[in-house]
Hints:
Helix content: over 70%
Number of strands: 0
Largest sheet: none
Radius of gyration: 17 Å
Shape: elongated
Distance between the termini: 55 Å
Amino acid sequence: PGRPNPGSAVVDAINQALELERAGRLDEALARIRQEQSEAPGEGGLYLVETRLLLKLRRLEEAEAAAEKALRLAPQLPDALYQRGVIQAMKKELDDAERTFRQVLERAPEHVAALNDLALLLITQGRKDEARELLQRVIAINPNDQQARQRLAAIGS
């Protein structure tokens, strides 16, 4: 309220938080995001970054709350739904995580993180053929994706 261009302030806050994250200063990054949330509580992108930071800090319950808020505020963003899937997978809610990752891919078929995470989930369930197809899609999108290449090699291409 009262700020001349709240959009640019949000972008600045996110950029500052990402710089702090790269420097390993996760608590400071989180504090910066939360400070901006108090100024712009309706900005879904802030909650996406908050979720990411909380996951890195292993604060799962808080991350889940932030992810749900991001999803409410920005349901059109595939990353908001993706983060829900990550949390479900971390909580070992594998059926829900699989469903969520598939929903992400319906919205954004080239969402590399969702492809990779769904492939890993399928590998853990012994569904290697389907995982192989997903990993091949990842490599087609991003030939330099080492994680996908390693997983593909591990299950046999």
